[in-house]
Amino acid sequence: MKNLYVGNLSHSTTEAELRAVFQAHGEVEKVNIVTDRETGRARGFAFVEMTNSGEAEKAVAALNGTELGGRTLKINEAKPKTDRPRSGGGAYGGGRGGHGPDDYRGQARQPREPRW
């Protein structure tokens, strides 16, 4: 069993279309087009699970760089989340985030001088 990452998909690509493309190279166990949680719209990539590792490698060799729905597909073996390098950033950025030695949370606020 081998899990393949399929990137640069058209947002209109269906599971049936993707399954048909990969079944030409071997047996497909599962197709999962990743969608946005909030909008339900396809995010432009999918995972295809193939039963036979040899067939999966042939599918990658045959299909990587080909066109589907007017887009050039990027296909490779999917890496488990733990194997991918973590990049900084994200929703909160990569800095200290106010949790360092100068963090005064929990301390009483000092009154300020009037500005005038």
Describe what is shown at a glance:
This protein has 116 residues and is an alpha+beta fold. The protein is built from two helices and six strands, in the order E-H-E-E-H-E-E-E. It has a domain at 2-41 and 55-77: Alpha-Beta Plaits.
Give a description of the structure.
With 116 residues, this protein is α+β, with helices and mostly antiparallel strands. It has a domain at 2-41 and 55-77: 2-Layer Sandwich (Alpha-Beta Plaits), CATH 3.30.70. The protein is built from two helices and six strands. The chain has helices at residues 15-23, 53-63, and strands spanning 2-7, 28-35, 42-50, 67-68, 71-72, 74-77. The chain has a four-stranded antiparallel sheet. Strands 4-5 form a two-stranded antiparallel ribbon. Strand 2 (28-35) and strand 3 form a beta hairpin. The radius of gyration is 23 Å and the shape is elongated.
Helix content: 10-25%
Radius of gyration: 23 Å
Count of strand segments? 6
Low-pLDDT residue intervals, each spanning 5 or more residues: none
Corresponding CATH architecture of the domain at 2-41 and 55-77? 2-Layer Sandwich
Shape: elongated
CATH class of the domain at 2-41 and 55-77: Alpha Beta
